[in-house]
Write a structure and sequence with these properties.
Length: 79
């Protein structure tokens, strides 16, 4: 729990639509946390949001996650 506390404490619910078995919390307008509750991790997750820039890392081990930005969505490559 300690390693994930950054994504829980001091955050608020996000109104960004999420796929099944995921939730999003956010801090301010520019920092969002994607929580994945699936027993088997999907290969990718797409969110219907627009942005010009996005980066993603895992909280536990600080690994970079590839992000693809499209005009109406962003996709996280979890493979």
């Amino acid at each position: 729990m300690t390693q994930n506390s950054e994504s829980i404490y001091g955050t608020q619910f996000s109104s960004i639509p999420t796929p099944q078995k995921t939730r999003i919390t956010q801090k301010g307008n520019n920092l969002v946390y994607l929580h994945i509750f699936a027993p088997k991790q999907p290969k990718n997750i797409t969110l219907a949001i627009t942005t010009k820039k996005a980066t993603a890392t895992t909280l536990a081990d600080k690994l970079d996650i590839p992000v693809k930005i499209d005009p109406n969505s962003i996709t996280f490559d979890l493979t």
